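Example S7 (structure tokens).
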């Protein structure tokens, strides 16, 4: 391979690496900026109690789900059969649903 072709190849690979690196960093930043609320709950046992706790802290439009989000079901909080009976659904560590505060939708996480 001629030195000129080698130079172009190296330049192209370097540029691609910089672009891909910037994309990965941007994605990380966006994920890190997702609005969330983390609650340390000890006496709350059901999602209905969690919803009451959120309401008392100024949250509204609370949608908690009986199952965690997965790639196959990224928004289970929108499926009514998974949100019908919050009094029967135990609070679980991690993501439990979404709520709105000051006009902004936040992800609801429980830290035990």
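Recovered sequence:
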């Amino acid at each position: 391979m001629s030195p000129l072709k080698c130079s172009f190849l190296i330049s192209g690979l370097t540029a691609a690496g910089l672009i891909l690196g910037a994309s990965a960093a941007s994605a990380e930043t966006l994920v890190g900026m997702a609005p969330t609320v983390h609650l340390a709950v000890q006496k709350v046992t059901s999602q209905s109690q969690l919803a009451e706790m959120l309401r008392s802290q100024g949250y509204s439009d609370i949608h908690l789900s009986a199952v965690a989000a997965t790639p196959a079901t990224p928004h289970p909080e929108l499926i009514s059969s998974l949100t019908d009976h919050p009094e029967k659904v135990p609070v679980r560590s991690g993501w439990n649903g979404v709520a709105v505060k000051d006009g902004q939708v936040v992800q609801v996480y429980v830290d035990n």
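Notes on this example. Helices lie at 3-32, 47-56.
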